[in-house]
From TrEMBL:
GO biological process entries: translation
Protein family (similarity comment): Belongs to the universal ribosomal protein uS17 family.
Record flagged with keyword Methyltransferase: no
Name the record gives this protein: Small ribosomal subunit protein uS17c
Family annotation (CDD domains): Ribosomal_uS17 (cd00364)
UniProt keywords, alphabetically: Ribonucleoprotein, Ribosomal protein, RNA-binding, rRNA-binding
Function: One of the primary rRNA binding proteins, it binds specifically to the 5'-end of 16S ribosomal RNA.
Lineage of producing organism: Eukaryota, Viridiplantae, Streptophyta, Embryophyta, Bryophyta
GO molecular function, one term: rRNA binding
């Protein structure tokens, strides 16, 4: 079976991902490397892939009109940014302001002259 390595660019479908596979070749007339990208739709049985993951695809029988590949394994996971919860941010700010208020009230204040 043929295998290719690519990066997941979409995982919006159930049990399916779109993987971009880059290939480079030398132009026959001009001495230049040309980069081309092909997008393949692949079957992801466990919905384990996220956008940005580097995956290895294996060719298979046609699973649907456009899906002829299966995700064999995930080579490298992408770092996923998760925004902190708003309630955690407000609780941290409230605790910080209370700590500053209590420290300023316990310190002796000098009278203004």
């Amino acid at each position: 079976m043929k295998t290719v390595v690519g990066k997941v660019v979409s995982n919006k479908m159930t049990k399916s991902v779109v993987v971009a596979v880059q290939r480079m070749w030398q132009h026959p007339r001009y001495p230049k490397l040309v980069r081309r990208t092909s997008k393949f739709m692949a079957h992801d049985e466990t919905n384990a892939c996220n956008i940005g993951d580097e995956v290895r695809l294996e060719s298979s029988r046609p699973l649907s009109k456009r899906k002829h590949w299966i995700v064999q394994d995930i080579i490298r996971r992408a770092r996923i940014f998760q925004a902190p919860d708003l309630s955690q941010i407000t609780a941290a700010k409230l605790a910080q302001s209370e700590a500053q208020a209590s420290s300023s009230s316990t310190s002796p204040s000098t009278p203004a002259s």
